[in-house]
Design a protein that fits this description.
alpha+beta; nine-stranded mixed sheet; 22 helices; about 70% helix; disordered N terminus
Length: about 625
């Protein structure tokens, strides 16, 4: 008793010579390895936020003209999402660090340190970590953001030279936002100290917990819930009666069922599967499988909420990123399909420099009754059509007779497009022989659907004809100067592949940039959370592994069981996130009638590689902690 009082007295006497702030700095330095990943993730988030804020405020970006307002709005939304996510991540991480230091806080209390002083100590530690992260993050952001802006310009296929972009408004906004986040989370930790009781602090890691169990019917409900969510997600938007009945409530239902199914998976399905494995002697008595399964039972049940959240965040990031990357990947191909000729316009011929093919197009317009009222269709003759295909190097279509016509519809979709079986022209009524979905004419100038008739039928039509012109160059990507010259001539119904390409790549490039870096922030944050939780459990498990080593269990077997446990904790939420994202991307690709296989696999490969790095770091740090 006397020794305890003497220790308390000596500690209090030492406090004046070493201020709480100095002690906080020493604690941070001593625990630097524990905070390293957290600080790194926070710094990365600050750099990305600073870049987005720079894009939002920079005057140089306004030179992008038509796309500047869209990009500014996109960056404003992105900064808001990033701010909310990082605030939650920092608050969540602080809660982990505080839980891991309960024994230390209890020791301070036992030595007679008042809760106010302990709270101030933790407050100062958080402020020191926040200050370091903020200073380093903004310093790196000043230079790193310019490298990222250059990357954005490349993704947007823009020749704009933005030089060294600096925005004082972005600097002030980043500083104030993260200062507020750090101060808020620091004061939250300060308040938590007052809710701790001394006995709870010392026995927090010894509180008994029953053996996790799961009922079979609950596990079955989890599998069925996810199955129903996937079945609903894969329903055709255009033809499904469920979509027509539920409307906008359908996506909310799918998301809700996915979240509930994910929660049931971690609360029941995995617990049920692990318990089943544990009961089978051939599995459980092999090496350290019994220990591995038992540890995982508690680990999965204790982390079920976190794993559910991580799986949903991963699914969201992978789905959004995969969809954006897929659209970007096929952007050039889509531009070429909707503007096959570099330029097209109505009226007189003009000089197009560097043109490899030029042609005039005589088109007549008819009106016909359709399902939703009257519609206009352009009509050209077969000779012109063959000439246009020849200019593009495309094969000729199947031949058709004099009493038939050919329908060209680049937007055709059998799920909702109206079938045209016959058309009534001034020269008579004709059956539609076949339909082609590749158009040799620019959609913006000639419209989507048009008809091809024989030369004699075209000549016999009494509708007035209009003259159009098309021109093809070697490459449309480097034609911006000429495109601008032609646009200034005031040509009627002018369409330009260079303009469409520039606008498409600018918006898709900005979306890909935002989606990629928001996704990376989400990924490194979720990976860090799993790391924090695993390392917190490593400190609790140190004594258990020490006993195993004392009774002769080899280091190889210990490493094996550690790897098995950690890979399940990493793989379970990530695999479920991948599965959710795969179903969502299949539904999205079916909606757009596009094949997303290559870009989506590339995107998922990057995410998997980063998660694998986190797994390797966690295993290595876990082994170091338990030795």
């Amino acid at each position: 008793m006397r020794s305890t009082k003497q220790s308390s007295k000596s500690w209090r006497e030492a406090v004046p010579s070493m201020t709480l702030f100095e002690l906080a700095k020493k604690n941070v330095a001593r625990n630097l390895s524990r905070y390293a990943l957290y600080v790194g993730t926070t710094i990365f988030s600050i750099v990305i936020y600073f870049t987005f804020a720079t894009l939002k405020h920079s005057h140089e970006i306004s030179a992008l003209a038509e796309t500047s307002k869209k990009i500014s709005g996109l960056m404003s939304t992105s900064t808001l999402i990033l701010m909310l996510f990082v605030a939650l991540f920092i608050a969540y991480s602080n809660a982990f660090f505080l839980r891991g230091r309960k024994r230390e806080v209890g020791l301070y209390s036992l030595l007679g340190v008042r809760k106010k002083q302990i709270g101030l100590l933790l407050l100062f530690e958080n402020i020191v970590i926040g200050a370091v992260s903020l200073i380093v993050g903004i310093a790196l952001g000043l230079f790193g953001s310019n490298a990222l802006l250059q990357l954005l310009m490349r993704l947007m296929k823009s020749d704009l030279d933005i030089g060294f972009a600096f925005s004082a408004s972005a600097l002030v906004e980043t500083f104030l936002v993260f200062l507020a986040i750090f101060l808020f989370t620091s004061f939250q930790g300060y308040r938590v100290i007052y809710r701790f009781k001394l006995i709870e602090l010392f026995h927090a890691d010894k509180s008994g917990e029953g053996v996790p169990t799961a009922k079979g019917w609950v596990a079955l409900m989890g599998v069925l819930t996810i199955g129903v969510a996937y079945w609903l997600a894969l329903q055709d938007l255009m033809t499904s009666s469920l979509w027509r009945t539920l409307g906008l409530a359908m996506p909310l239902l799918i998301i809700g069922l996915s979240v509930i199914g994910s929660a049931l998976l971690f609360h029941s399905v995995l617990i049920f599967a692990l318990a089943w494995l544990k009961q089978h002697e051939r599995w459980s008595w092999k090496r350290l499988n019994l220990l591995t399964t038992s540890q995982l039972l508690y680990r999965i049940r204790g982390n079920a909420k976190t794993l559910t959240l991580i799986s949903i965040i991963s699914a969201t990031a992978i789905t959004a990123g995969g969809a954006i990357f897929s659209v970007y990947y096929y952007a050039e191909e889509n531009v070429a399909s909707y503007t096959p000729y570099t330029y097209a316009w109505k009226g007189e011929a003009v000089d197009v420099k560097g043109a490899t093919f030029e042609s005039s197009v005589e088109q007549k317009t008819i009106r016909m009754e359709a399902e939703y009222g009257e519609r206009e269709l352009g009509v050209i003759n077969a000779s012109t059509y063959r000439h246009l295909l020849e200019g593009l190097g495309q094969e000729e279509p199947a031949s058709f007779s004099e009493d038939e016509v050919l329908s060209i519809d680049p937007f055709y979709d059998e799920r909702y497009s109206e079938e045209i079986e016959s058309v009534e022209l001034s020269a008579g009524t004709f059956d539609v022989a076949t339909r082609a979905e590749t158009s040799p004419l620019n959609v913006m100038t000639f419209g989507g659907t048009f008809l091809v008739v024989s030369d004699d039928v075209f000549q016999a039509m009494t509708e007035p004809s209009e003259t159009y012109h098309v021109a093809l160059t070697e490459s449309f990507k480097d034609q911006q100067v000429q495109s601008e010259r032609l646009a200034n001539l005031g040509l009627e119904s002018f369409s330009s592949a260079p303009d469409v390409y520039a606008e498409t790549m600018a918006m898709n490039g900005a979306l890909l940039f935002v989606g990629t870096f928001l996704g990376l922030v989400f990924l490194v944050a979720t990976g860090s959370v799993i790391y924090f939780k695993t390392m917190t459990e490593a400190e609790d498990d140190r004594a258990k592994y020490a006993i195993l080593q004392k009774i002769g269990i080899s280091d190889r077997d210990v490493r094996r069981t550690v790897r098995q446990q950690i890979i399940v904790v990493f793989l379970a939420p990530f695999a479920l996130g991948i599965l959710h994202a795969t179903v969502a991307l299949i539904a999205f690709s079916n909606l757009l009638s596009m094949n997303f296989t290559v870009p989506v696999l590339a995107w998922m490969g990057v995410y998997t590689a980063i998660y694998a790095v986190y797994y390797g770091i966690t295993v290595r740090r876990f082994m170091t902690a338990i030795r």
